[in-house]
Amino acid sequence: MSAPLIEMRGITKSFGAVKANEAVDLAVAPGEILGLLGENGAGKTTLMNVLFGAYAPDAGEILVGGRPVAIHNSADALAAGIGMVHQHFHLAPRLTVLENLLIGIPGKSGRIDRAGGLARLKEIGRQHGLSLDPDLPVSALSVGEQQRLEIIKALFRGAKLLILDEPTAVLAPSEVDGLFAALRSMAAQGLGIIFISHKLNEVRALTHRCVVLRHGKVAGRVDHPAGTTSAEMAKLMCGHEIVPPAKGESTPGASVLTLDGISTSGHAGTTLREVSLFVRSGEILGIAGVSGNGQRALADVISGMLSPDTGTMTIAGKAVAQFSPRELQALGLGRIPEDRMTTGLVTNLPLADSMVLPRIGTEAFSRKGLLNPAAIRAFAEAQIKAYDIRCPGPMVRAGALSGGNLQKALLARELAFDPKVLIVSQPTRGLDIGAARFIHEKFMVMRGKGCGIIVISEDLEEMLMLSDRIAVMYEGRIAGTLFGADATVARLGLMMTGAEGRS
Amino acid sequence: MFRLEARTSTPAWFNLALPLLAIAVALVLCSGLIAIAGAGVIEAYSVMLSASLGDSYAITETLVRAAPMIFTGLAVATAFRAKFWNIGAEGQLLAGAVASCAVGAIPMPGYLAMLLMALVGAAAGAIVALVPATLRVKFKVDDVVSSLLLNSVIYYALMALIEGPWKDTFSGYPISPPIEDSANFPVLIEGTRLHIGVVVALIAAPLIWFLIARTTLGFRIRVTGENPEAARYGGINVQRVLLSTALLSGALAGLAGVGEVGGVHFQVMSDISPGYGYSGIVVAMLARLNPLGVVPAALFLAAVMTGAEAMSRATGVPAFLSDVIQGTALLAMLVALLFTAYRVRRVGASA
């Protein structure tokens, strides 16, 4: 291994009483892809924010090319050759690709150096196979393309070390392959890359070496990720073995949710065309598909956020007259939205408020328009205990919780009312292994109790593990449904791309 | 070198400390203006203090001035909680004043007249507030702009009335005819202007607090304001909440106008409100949108207004200083709010 490009020595950073990082050592050599693994809250993002200058470390030093440097802000980091692609992009949507690249770059005598920028963009495209139309506005780019632009932006500013914070969380499976190819090419040309993730298969496929963080400390280092099993790495991450939940026997009963010929319009994204499906009690129906094939419209219709133009829906034998969250809930539907932070919770209000929100008008939490604060608090406290939601208490700001704990809170608020049907979108997106495992177990318990569950997910492994049946969506239709052993990654993949239809 | 770092939580004492800090900053900044005007800073402020809080009469005057700002402050705080940006409390106040004055001029038993004045005045304010709210809900019209511009519409409509058909024929001035004597609000302390409306204002604050904190409507207002999408997903009719909030907010601002007609002026004139509707925004921000905080915030502004006139007479500093203090306090408060989301950290200056 050649001399390290960047080295972090003994980095310690505390927030109040919490040690987010404790004596962390880490080095990246030129041409190396380093995986940074850890559960949510293990300190990965804090460590990278220290490296990128967003936080000042309490102790420790950062060396670039063997010399200690002080990094106080992103400009210092960029000057030291460190570029970062954040989970949430920092782009100006109304400006074009080229304009975004040129933001903050001094031009010649007060004018923007367009020609020079174009040349540089072309060169980066040639070197790493990363191309984008320079004149397209960012708002016209897909999420994957926006990410590519962020990477180009870092390279444009001369980054020799690229930090990617959970880059695959926002990508479809096919886009992940493209990203990995680009990262490998960049590494082959001598760049150092830090790849943050908690998806073990990705880390094993991509990285040369990885560092595992747990509770802010280095829990272990893996020198040959490809030759290490996911189970071993998971054990380093969590500190204990992870066993997938057992899928108990369950005999599906009568249909608890039926969609018949549902079509939609006027919805941003793909609309539904003649969608018919059903889920029975004690059964998990998976909805697979490449992102953007109508899954969001389907989730919106079933959860009452969107009224279909044609078609009917019945819940537990009762026809839905009015598509509103309140009516569907009254019929026995439980809902967990795709986006926890924007659709599920009110981050600025106490956690308890979010937990009672959908049922605030019911006898359980209010009477004649007056809230029952004691009941609200008691409910939240009971659920926090039952679901092991890690938080200081029910009155803490919901936004202060980690993703896994938020998802548990959303699950608790629905399951506490014993829904007959549960619709869940992307149940474990962005969650660490432990939290995902917990969520999956709860689904199995509900299935055993006779609840019909619809899981919409882009994670095929999850889909195969949970589902009794899998329906594949393609261009707003159900392309086909697969049962048990028929459902393989290969078959699903074909149906997802529209190559095969079967029902 | 200093830098800002995001906070994960805000200490509770900030709710008290930040407004006090903002007020202190405003007073310090304005002392420069006093010095430029050629007066002693300490002298000017002490005249202000004694004229607004120095004796029992001064205190009643401050209370009388605070009452309309408690109402407009509550109106703005309620609206802002739901993120209905009601900048139109001034117009809603004027509408409430006109409507209650029209009712108060009709001969009828006094208590009935006062009750009707309050109801009709509140309704008038509510209807005015409903205009920008409806425009926003139905046509996505920006409520800041529409509610603000409506203030001018109402003001000039009022002027047209009192210059024209509604001009007081007896006096010949551009003022409306007075309300019936029996409709004048009872005075609580002989020899002062402390009327029953002030007590109503002081009671309204805890009532609105209760409504926001302890009722399902208040819950829906809070949730809708913080995250309309989560509110809709949770089964809340967001549009209906916005319209209800507008009605409530407008009614409160309308009551400010009722109090001015029934308790202070007994008729409508062009300067019936020295910008109480706009001061309501300052009050609500200083109170951090907490209805209970509205009372001390309104008392502060009222003391500044009452005191500024006496200071002007005693030291020659223009009474406009009270507007400058208000404005500076609002700006200081907006800056101070930064500290609820960020903390200032000192970092090593080494490079």
Overview of the molecule:
The complex is a heterodimer of chains A (503) and B (351). Chain A has 503 residues and is α/β, with parallel strands linked by helices. Chain A folds into 3 domains: 6-238, Rossmann fold (3-Layer(aba) Sandwich), CATH 3.40.50; 244-332 and 419-503, Rossmann fold, CATH 3.40.50.300; 346-416, no CATH class. Helix content of chain A is 33%, strand content 24%. In chain A, the strands form 5 sheets. Chain A has a 6-stranded mixed beta sheet, sandwiched between helices. A 6-stranded mixed beta sheet of chain A has the order 16-19-20-13-21-22, with helices on both faces. Chain A has a 4-stranded antiparallel beta sheet with strand order 2-1-4-5, with helices on one face. The termini of chain A are far apart. Chain B has one domain: ABC transporter involved in vitamin B12 uptake, BtuC (Orthogonal Bundle). In chain B, helix 2 packs across helix 12 (291-315). Chains A and B meet through helix 10, helix 11 and strand 18 of A and helix 8 and helix 9 of B.
Summarize the structure.
The complex is a heterodimer of chains A (503) and B (351). With 503 residues, chain A is of the alpha/beta class.
CATH topology descriptor of chain B = ABC transporter involved in vitamin B12 uptake, BtuC
Mean residue pLDDT of chain A: 89
Second-tier CATH architecture of chain B: Orthogonal Bundle
At the first level of CATH, the class of chain B is Mainly Alpha
Silhouette of chain A: globular
Rg of chain A computed from alpha carbons, rounded to a whole number of angstroms: 24 Å
What oligomeric state do the depicted chains represent? heterodimer
The profile of the biggest β sheet of chain B is: 2 strands, antiparallel
How much helical structure, as a percent, in the residues of chain B? over 70%
- The total number of structural domains of chain A is 3
Q: What class, by secondary structure content of chain A?
A: alpha/beta
Find the CATH superfamily of the largest domain in chain A.
Answer: P-loop containing nucleotide triphosphate hydrolases
Strand content of chain B: under 5%
Mean pLDDT across all residues of chain B, rounded?
92
Low-confidence stretches of chain A: none
The count of strands of chain A amounts to 22
Task: Kindly provide the name of the CATH class of the largest domain in chain A.
Answer: Alpha Beta
Biggest sheet overview of chain A? 6 strands, mixed
